[in-house]
Amino acid sequence: MKLHRLESRQWLPLSLKEAWKFFSVPENLDRITPPDMSFEILSGESDHTYAGQIISYRIRPVLNIPMKWVTEITHVVEGEYFIDEQRFGPYKFWHHVHKFKEQDGGVLMEDTLHYALPGGWLGELGGSFVHKKVHGIFEFREAELNRLFPA
To answer: Where is 97: in which H helix or E strand?
Structure first.
């Protein structure tokens, strides 16, 4: 299994409390996900993220074909970080750490994503499409957050 890593850093002109309030509500994920994914939360969108929370989604990442995705919030330290891990879905492995820290009058948001494609070496052959899609999701999110929270 080949493990891929994506790191992202973004400064936002928010207090730590405001940033945590926004990012710890699963419903807000829809606001920062590209529209072409047709992202829809099916269950688990409680008020705030907590360890053990199971969230089910329907996405349409390719050719508008629906796919179910289930993640678990495995760790939460309020105001500092949370981790989501895929339980069922399009990846063989998905582990995403979201960190927040006060910096320069705002919040630095740092993401570290480790993921693996299904299908072994055969899955890796078509992997460039998936890698572009994952990077595109993070690029869209950055632009959308800059629009929602202008400096």
So the answer is: strand 93-103
- pTM exceeds 0.70, yes or no: yes
C-alpha Rg value of the chain to the nearest Å: 15
Q: State the Cα–Cα distance between residues 123 and 77, nearest whole angstrom.
A: 35
Count of domains forming the chain: 1
Q: At residue 54, what is the residue type?
A: I
Return d(Cα 63, Cα 142) in angstroms, integer: 24
Q: Which residues pair with 71 in a beta bridge?
A: 55, 86
DSSP code string of 60-76: --STT--EEEEEEEEEE
Structural domain boundaries enclosing 28: 4-148
Q: How far apart are CA 114 and CA 79, in angstroms?
A: 22
pLDDT in tens, 30-66: 999 999 989 999 998 777 899 999 999 999 887 788 9
CATH number of the domain where residue 102 is located: 3.30.530.20
Judge contact between 59 and 38, C-beta under 8 A. Answer: yes
